[in-house]
Sequence to fold (163 residues):
Amino acid sequence: MGPAALQGLVLVLTGLLLLICFRVPPLRRWIESLDLRALVLVHVTRFAGIYFLVLHQRGDLPRPFVVPGSITDIIVATMAIPIALAPLEPAPRLRAIVIWNVVGFVGILFTLINATRVSLVDPTQLTALTHLPLSLVPTMLLPLLLAIHVILFIRTSGKPGGA
Fold:
């Protein structure tokens, strides 16, 4: 597998997921009807970063890939909870979601860039991500999370079809 194959797969699957979301009218209407807080809460799955830290400790994944991405994921997952559940007025909640969304999106992009950098040095360092259960991260979880970030950007933009 090439150095950027997993990252390319994540981006292609994210694009396909977004295409389906925007081109299938019933699915689009359903997504548009969801409370933004529900979309934010899906990111609690980013607590998986804790498991990645364990895998690093066991020697299964390299530190330069795991530590920055896992810490970012844990922070984003932790912040998703009060942003979604705190009793905030709509305007402050919307601002919080926008800021959180930027941080979460940049965190995933940074992780993908970091994975490419690590893979260029030694493509075998991320082999664990090509086998179950970890292969679900680049094939399902990351595309879903990235797609939700894009949907949140659209929904919070203030343009028609947004929040």
Helices lie at 5-23, 25-33, 36-41, 49-57, 63-85, 90-121, 136-155.
